Every structure is written in C-alpha cells, then in structure tokens.
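We modelled the chain as a single entity of 256 amino acids. Its sequence is:
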Amino acid sequence: MIGKANHKTTRAHNKRLILKTIYNAGEISRADVARETGLTRATVSDAVAELMEEGLVRETGIGKSTGGKPPTLLSVVENSRYLIGKDLADSEFCGAGLNLRGKIRNILKIPIKDSDGETALSLLYQLIEKLIESADSPVLGIGIGTPGLIDSEKGIVKNAVNLDWHDLPLKELLEKKYNLPVYIANDCQVAALAECTFGERDVQNLIVIKAGRGTGAGIVINGKIHYGDGFGAGEIGHVKMVEDGDLCRCGNSGCL
C-alpha cells in the first residue's frame, strides 16, 4: 500500500525534479526552472538554495534580459559528486570513477586470471576500496556490469559461469560492506543503456553486441533495458553451435 505524500517527501520530490531540470538544461535560470517544472518561484528558490549549500548547483553567470532584470543562470557542479562503475566481463576487473556528467576521472584495473568464486569477490572488494580511496568528492553509489544472468531488481547474480557465481546476493553484500547504494545488471545490458544515455544520437531503441570472454547482447526498447524471461535476453554465448564441441564451464559442450 502506498501512503500519502507528506511535506517531507514532497520537498524531496521537488528538489530532485529541480536538480534534474538544471542538469538537463546545462544552464538555466530559476524563473525558467519554475516554468518548466510548474513549481512556484519560492519553491524553486528554496530548493536551489539547498542544492547550492550542498555543492551540487552553482550560479554560472548572467543570462539575456527579456526586458527586466537579467536572470542569473544555474548549472550542476559536475565534479561535486563521485560515482563508481565496474565492468567484470573480461580477463580483468575494470573500475572507474566518474563525475555527474559521466566523465571518467580515473581508471583502475585488476587482473583476475583464472580467479573465480570467493577469490573473484575478494578482488572486486579490493577494486572498490581503491576507487573509494581515490575519490576527491562524496561517493554517490556503485554501479556494476557483470556477466551472466542477473536479477537486477534484487541485485542477485543468478548464474555467472566465468566467475563461478551462483545465486550470489551481490547487491546486499556490497551495500552492507560500503553503506552505499549499489546497482547491478548484466554487462551487455548496461553497455546498451550507457550508449542510449550518452551516445551521440538521440536513440531510444538499440542493440549492443559484445564479443570477448563471453558473447552477449544488450537490448534497449523505448529507453529501457529489455531483460526478457528469466533475465536472459541477449545471452547468446552458451547457445550450442558444435554437436561434439569442447566441454564448456557451463556444463554443456560446443557453446558459441
């Protein structure tokens, strides 16, 4: 059952909406934020004051006058927060620190060789801790792209053959360990979502195919990841291609 919105939740919602509007605009005045969001100027002014106090928003200059006093422009401080992203799909774990515009601040890599199971999990911890130590602004959260069948809603790695992870509650483990929000999805799916979000063209429907240690695809439809039944949409690497092929780690033989 969803409860009624109270004053606190309404303020939080308005604040997020205002921040998103400033972020999407690049530069915008308080008056234009009010017009675009439908919120009162007083509400916008109060929320902007809070965002500036938190270091998320700043005044960047004076806009063009339309007859009255020239407006003061606002923009998001892109380096005010730090995001951690990790790609676990290849022969090395790759992690990066990013700012609020998705620009990479630093990259760290840890070879995994034939590590799997608990050893691979320990290497992931090491990589996260090094990235947190290198952060020069507050860390907002952790995003992980991992191979295998992933229940992204619950953050559970259902089956990652190359890492020997099965029903691993990775989101829960990391959130308890680092006290940060954690988001987990299949590596191909997050690659497709990243292309949809930060690619040069405004495309809401696309497929990204990755071929490396594994073979898979990420599918985005109407700007949202398509997970498929059993979270397996795009997972083509373990399709049997050779009748009497080599034995695969998944237990089958002749996998692509």
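As a brief sanity check on the tokenised model: The first strand starts at residue 28 and ends at 29. The CA atoms of residues 245 and 254 lie 4 Å apart.
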